[in-house]
């Protein structure tokens, strides 16, 4: 079964930073980067999310219209684009080409994450709502690239707790239910012919079951049962549609790509393994029907190639783009034309169009051309030991002009990630670059429970919210202090989602460590968090109880680690930001923390956005939040006038 990030769905795509200038010769002073306007970091990209039509004749992208990201389409050999959507309330959440003429896209309302699916022609005509149902969330199971007029979607229309799979005709809107979810299926998977043949379920709350059927006329049967901690995650079928490519940690600590036989319930072959990191990504050629590569993340993204043609393609791209990380984000049906994305720690990067027949590589667009990467800061990989001798990996971003050797007594923003079962990655992170530009060192750490480091490291986080997970953060702060990098009087903690919880826990359980805190859509009370989860997470509640604590059996623990019950311990000023429609971390999480602090006379600044959910997507709301955070941090850990 796939791990579910309880608060933040991961995702998150490629991020964060890269550049360093030495101290000025002879003077001993630091050459600082010019102060860059806050809005330059958090503006919508100029163009992003490029995709190519199946026939390779058009490419599409998201770009701002009325401050919202909308879809544009342009001929590959053209010089102007047509805007095909006109959303003004909220950015389009995601889109794809359904066929050469029609695109499908998802959007929600005010951040409620109840996504609906819409279709539109590439010239902007015939906009049609396909799954616009009240309080229903749409997921994409299979885009059916080889079947032009159909997709397979998941809808929790019949029962808000579970998703049933439907075959949807994108022209007529007609839907056919392919199976009725018995109440425990968490994911569905098709074969290469678009036939629904695999399902993954949670049984008894904590046990995972992989179900399989030979044809769509057969009943699903259980072929593998495991505890949720022991994973076999199907990626796609082998090209004869008989077996499964999967990633698994069965009988091992680190995940590895394998071939699994659903008829026998056995792993037949381990394709590649890494003894330090989980190997989680698998890619294949739809056209040539070969496995191409596996990916994993050390401090940066790494690839292992199964296919020589794919290796040569990347080597070709690296000849011109090797200074940056390179990702192939899309290809046409014949796999002759490619969309290529670059990025680094100091640059949002650019999109390129590569034609393998002519060997022409041309830049299509810079994502944020107003960002000058020479003024950005370098994201340094670091590691330190926790108090119980676990190696904690992370990243340290120093203001431009500083090095690990010369950085002394800097103000620091500690930035734990969300999830918590996710991880920080190397890449461009606008928050971190903004903070570094304002003179703060930024420490990000992959505390225990962070993904990618194996099963044992993940399980070490169970029932450790506010305890050893928080200790890993505290130990990182103390490591910076011991090195002399951090000014112990000017350390703030800031995070979103679980990172917001870690902010509150840091101010509550180590009140003398931090001078200020910023909590962004964070958890304050684990009792109410577990009571208000979205209905489609209910089948996994027992799993969450094992990972976090049971409201009754572990009530003393949950009370001990819920910051709202210990607000009297907070000494440092706090800034809280919350989306009113957040379906994961309910607004009550922030409301009750603010009330508890006000009753004790503790300074708290509270920002609520009525048209947002779990994080602020609308540009003007991002501007408001980061402007307020900048002022708040400057007041409490900024340079003091003599």
The N- to C-terminal Cα distance equals 58 Å
At CATH level 3, the topology of the domain at 377-637 is Rossmann fold
Helical fraction:
10-25%
CATH level-four homologous superfamily name of the domain at 377-637:
Alpha/Beta hydrolase fold, catalytic domain
The profile of the biggest β sheet is: 8 strands, mixed
The number of helical segments is 11
Overall CATH architecture of the domain at 377-637:
3-Layer(aba) Sandwich
| Rg measurement, Å | 25 Å
Give the strand order of the largest sheet, numbering strands 1, 2, ... along the chain: 28-29-31-30-32-33-34-35
Principal-axes shape call: globular
Poorly predicted ranges (pLDDT <50, ≥5 residues)?
1-28
What proportion of the residues form beta strands (DSSP E)? 25-35%
Helix/strand/pairing category: alpha+beta
Average pLDDT confidence is 93
Oligomeric nature of the chains:
single chain
The CATH class assignment of the domain at 377-637 is Alpha Beta
* Beta strand count: 35
Descriptive account of the structure:
- 17% of the residues lie in helices and 33% in strands.
- By secondary structure, the protein is an alpha+beta fold.
- The protein has a domain at 377-637: 3-Layer(aba) Sandwich (Rossmann fold).
- The strands form 8 sheets. It has an 8-stranded mixed beta sheet, with helices on both faces. Strands 1-2-3-4 form a 4-stranded antiparallel beta sheet, with no helix packed on it. It has a 4-stranded antiparallel beta sheet with strand order 5-6-7-8, with no helix packed on it.
- The longest helix has 19 residues, at 619-637.
């Amino acid at each position: 079964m796939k791990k579910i990030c309880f608060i933040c769905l991961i995702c998150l795509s490629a991020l964060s930073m890269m550049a360093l200038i030495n101290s000025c010769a002879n003077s001993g002073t630091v050459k600082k980067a010019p102060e860059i306007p806050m809005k330059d970091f958090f503006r919508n990209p100029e163009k992003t999310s490029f995709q190519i039509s199946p026939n390779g004749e058009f490419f599409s992208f998201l770009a701002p219209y009325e401050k919202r990201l909308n879809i544009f389409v342009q001929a590959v050999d053209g010089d102007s684009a047509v805007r095909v959507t006109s959303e003004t309330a909220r950015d389009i959440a995601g889109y794809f080409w359904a066929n050469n003429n029609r695109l499908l896209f998802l959007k929600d309302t005010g951040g409620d994450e109840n996504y609906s699916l819409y279709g539109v022609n590439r010239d902007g005509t015939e906009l049609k709502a396909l799954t616009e149902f009240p309080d229903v969330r749409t997921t994409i199971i299979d885009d059916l690239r080889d079947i032009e007029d159909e997709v397979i979607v998941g809808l929790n229309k019949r029962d808000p707790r579970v998703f049933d799979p439907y075959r949807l005709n994108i022209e007529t809107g007609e839907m056919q239910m392919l199976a009725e979810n018995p109440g425990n299926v968490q994911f569905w998977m098709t074969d290469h012919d678009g036939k629904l043949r695999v399902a993954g379920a949670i049984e008894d709350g904590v046990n995972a079951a992989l179900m399989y059927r030979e044809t769509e006329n057969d009943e699903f049967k259980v072929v593998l049962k495991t505890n949720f901690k022991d994973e076999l995650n199907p990626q796609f079928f082998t090209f004869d549609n008989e077996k499964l490519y999967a990633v698994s940690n069965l009988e091992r600590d680190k995940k590895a790509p394998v071939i699994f036989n659903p008829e026998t319930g056995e792993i037949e072959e381990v394709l590649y393994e890494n003894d330090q990191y989980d190997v989680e990504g698998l890619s294949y050629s739809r056209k040539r029907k070969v496995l191409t590569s596996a990916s994993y993340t050390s401090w940066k993204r790494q690839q292992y190639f199964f296919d020589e043609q794919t290796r040569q393609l990347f080597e070709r791209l690296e000849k011109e783009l090797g200074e940056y990380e390179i990702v192939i984000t899309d290809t046409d049906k014949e796999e002759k034309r490619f969309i290529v994305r670059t990025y680094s720690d100091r640059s949002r990067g650019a999109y390129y169009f590569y034609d393998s027949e002519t060997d022409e590589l041309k830049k299509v667009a810079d994502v944020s051309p107003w960002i000058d990467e020479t003024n950005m800061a370098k994201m340094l990989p670091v590691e330190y030991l926790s108090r119980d001798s676990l190696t904690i990996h992370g990243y340290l971003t120093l203001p431009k002009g500083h090095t690990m050797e010369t950085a002394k007594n800097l103000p620091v923003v500690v930035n734990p990630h969300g999830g918590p079962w996710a991880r920080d990655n190397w890449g461009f992170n606008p928050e971190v670059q903004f903070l570094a530009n304002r003179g703060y060192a930024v420490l990000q750490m992959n505390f225990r429970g962070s993904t990618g480091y194996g099963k044992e490291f993940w399980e070490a986080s169970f029932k450790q919210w506010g305890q050893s997970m928080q200790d890993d953060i505290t130990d990182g702060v103390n490591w910076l202090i011991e090195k002399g990098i951090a000014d112990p009087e000017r350390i703030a903690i800031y995070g979103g989602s679980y990172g917001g919880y870690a902010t509150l826990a840091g101010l509550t359980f180590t009140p003398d460590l931090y001078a200020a805190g910023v909590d962004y859509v964070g958890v304050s009370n684990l009792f109410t968090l577990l009571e208000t989860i979205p209905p489609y997470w209910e089948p996994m509640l027992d799993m969450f109880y094992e990972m976090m604590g049971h409201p009754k059996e572990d009530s003393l623990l949950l009370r001990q680690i819920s910051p709202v019950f210990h607000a009297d311990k907070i000494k440092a000023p706090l800034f809280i930001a919350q989306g009113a429609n957040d379906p994961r971390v309910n607004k009550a999480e922030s409301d009750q923390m603010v009330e508890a602090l006000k009753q004790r006379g503790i300074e708290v600044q509270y920002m609520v956005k009525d048209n947002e959910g779990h994080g602020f997507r609308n540009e003007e709301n991002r501007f408001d939040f980061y402007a307020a955070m900048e002022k708040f941090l400057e007041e409490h850990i900024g340079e003091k006038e003599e």
